[in-house]
Amino acid sequence: MKKLRSVVTCMGVFFFCVCGAFAQSVPAVEQWGRFEFALRGTPIGNPFNDVALEATFTNGGEEVTVNGFYDGGGVYRVRFMPEKKGTWSYATVSNMPALDGKTGTFECVNPGTENHGPVKTRGMFDFAYADGKPYYPFGTTVYAFVHQGDSLENTTLETLRNAPFNKVRICVFPKNYEFNDREPEYYPFKRVEGVELIGSNQTAVWDFTKFDPEFFQHLEKRIDRLNDLGIECDLILFHPYDNGRWGFDRMTRPNDIRYLEYVTARLASFRNIWWSMANEFDYMKEKTLADWQAFLETVAANDPYGHLRSVHNGDTLFNHHNPLVTHASVQSASMLSDFGRGSLMRDAYLKPVMFDEVCYEGNIESRWGNLSAREMTHRFWQGALVGAYVTHGETYLDPDDIIWWAAGGVLRGQSPARIGFLRRLIEQETGALHLIDNWRTLNASMGESGQIVIYFGKETPTEWAVTFPAKIRWADGTQFNVEVIDTWEMTRTPVPGTFTAQTIARYVIGEADGKKIKLPGKPYQALLITRVP
Amino acid sequence: MKKLRSVVTCMGVFFFCVCGAFAQSVPAVEQWGRFEFALRGTPIGNPFNDVALEATFTNGGEEVTVNGFYDGGGVYRVRFMPEKKGTWSYATVSNMPALDGKTGTFECVNPGTENHGPVKTRGMFDFAYADGKPYYPFGTTVYAFVHQGDSLENTTLETLRNAPFNKVRICVFPKNYEFNDREPEYYPFKRVEGVELIGSNQTAVWDFTKFDPEFFQHLEKRIDRLNDLGIECDLILFHPYDNGRWGFDRMTRPNDIRYLEYVTARLASFRNIWWSMANEFDYMKEKTLADWQAFLETVAANDPYGHLRSVHNGDTLFNHHNPLVTHASVQSASMLSDFGRGSLMRDAYLKPVMFDEVCYEGNIESRWGNLSAREMTHRFWQGALVGAYVTHGETYLDPDDIIWWAAGGVLRGQSPARIGFLRRLIEQETGALHLIDNWRTLNASMGESGQIVIYFGKETPTEWAVTFPAKIRWADGTQFNVEVIDTWEMTRTPVPGTFTAQTIARYVIGEADGKKIKLPGKPYQALLITRVP
Predict the structure, then answer these.
(1) Per the CB < 8 Å rule, is B348 touching A350?
(2) Which of A378, A438, B269, B513 fits a disulfide with B79 by CB distance 3.0 to 4.6 angstroms?
């Protein structure tokens, strides 16, 4: 082991000969794809705990060390996501001789056309894939997606294939909550041998130091399928909806950390993974702020690729200024209910802001679960208008309690189609929006394209006198066209003619001939305003 | 000098004999009062620049080193604010022999009844004087207060004596802006000898390395008078409203730093000083974020007492998470215009939030200067309701352009009386408020007293069905009384009878017998709800 360690540290100058059981050919792996190899070793003690395995990958000056993990049945695995093309070599280090000193090589080749790499932050407020393609999150929520069994899970995937969402929030741990009392098929931990379950409290049944690889293999299959659909997986690592039933929400700190190390060893190489440290961290009364800091540090230390990290709140915001937090993941029932409120999160955090819970479209009695489709759509527009990103969820009652927000299945609501309409507008035309003058004009934004979007929300004007905040800096004489967008009907209606900008007051640019825009006097109208080139 | 330094470093074990010109008696200084001594030395070179003078004060284990400063006419001064009672000894160190090695002693005695010490932050969101007495800022704004000449400045002080304000925002530098084109009587810098002023741009006239002590002596007199009136001085160190006329807004970094060192040497010992690094930092296009960081660091390093520090914005918020920023000083035209918006700043910054510009009560044409008195009062209530602190300003047209917001003089508006009414309610009864359920109920807050305040703003209900967020955690059967407050008329009307709390839904506590509160159907009403002991 000592010998190998010295090789690892000055690896740059060594050529790694392909040797051993995994060296029959040089595999090719896409950039941002996943390279994986397996090693066999007789398990000793608690193989999750007692066996250390890591591998260092090198490619020219690049060197990345990743943790391996025990996958059951005497198999240990190492996974790696190459971020750089070319020849990668690796060597393992382990305290188990059978796993130690294994070396190999693979070729990292061009990514496929649908592979743009993992999502990173872009600028101060936005996101892009690693290849530079902008990514605008339009997410949905299926908390207990992976705990529903193949039939329903496949239905969910089929729904997602045809839905407008490119991100989904799912939990590792199963959910014990209203409408969610089914036992899952898989559990993340092994049962303690010889302990009988008495009553519904299962906490004594689980050995939190021994993982069940089958659970994780199943989870991984689902994450890969999401990736096939172009969907980012915002993986929720802890949540309070266990409510003590299994006890996964109230493990000790050492068990929490071991769990995070295991999850990151297995999943950090998945291109579409994001780490959501929690849903509603503040409702997990057993955890302290020091715990969340330790969790963030553990995940950051064990994810060499720097996948996105966030901490979602119940009613008390996490301190999103924490440098380990890549973007603010905010639950709020009220921040997107009117103009410009959401912008304040951006202004304060100077990071991308995602409204990962804004209540759900549905008809359940709980106050967070009965938005109309119009209100959900409105919140997406309010979010988009301030350059924040909104996550959908749906809670329509179902005779079998198959509710999208937790169980998946099919979507019944009317907001997804409208969300898709908005997504196309942002992705294909305007790019990310930001308020032009957040000091006072809270319904007018400019896109990365230079186009202006004005949104009237629940107001029902029949005409709009052209007035832009002077900060658009359009010279007098600038010509522009206007389209009226009905965000609910998903129609776009060009207004005939062109218009001419002219400064009409200290802070205001208007129309040179005083032309006005006719509007239908209905709610949820918007304008898309484009300069004539 | 070397010898003295060694004395200074092990000062704790020495007894300082009272010696030299300042040792005729042992002066007594109140705790948080100001101890000052003067030394004479023949000025050499640029005495502001070339003479170094500091003094170390010790009292038991306490040791505080402060900078001295040149006050003109061959006089150098050292000022010190003792924070601990007992006997303080001091010794100077200087590169000018006449100023070096001077020692002395004074006695720090009990503070007077009106002296509660400097204001510090209290808990996460509030303020208190050093003696623990809570301080609730109710400020106003008179930017160019000290540049108006004795007559008007005395009028301003007389107005403040009778006004409800306990903080005032004033600028060190004079103001060149609309309604503000008068030349001040004093300037902070000396004129360059032999340079003639040509045209209105005076930048070449000033020697930014030489201060005019008369200017600062005048400023200090004003700050002390404010202190006599129980008013904190939020001193604005830089601002953009020079617009290049004198050039005080666009000095070089070394001159800026020297200026801050001089100001802090003179003023850090003033009990009621706060450091507002800027008004509208983002409108000072010549300064970078690195400049602001350097300014914060300079002020913090040269103020051993840790007076409050903030950076006020134009339309882009400063990063108030900066650890050198003690509280968020926010300008916003819209954050207090409706319910709960202001709370988001608190939620995001986890620091006290002061809305130091919310537009002004007045009638000038500029969009920031024509709030009605009702709207100004409303914004104070919106701020108080979310546990944030609001600053007043007034901009009524005047034939001589004597407008309160910049020049002082007299107050003409109708909001100050209402602000005083609110201040008394907060100070004498409720204490600081915070939203009970900021997830969704944005008009109901609980005070430190445990009382509940519900504010209806511009709504005009004729009755209120008792509904509290369940988070008040009042047991069923809790009895309470209700007062209707007319925030505009400044009346408080007890509602006859007592009421009884009862949980009526998952998130809602109501009234056991379904009693409702009658309201007058007018805007700007509030309720004060108090448990029966």
Answers:
(1) no
(2) B269
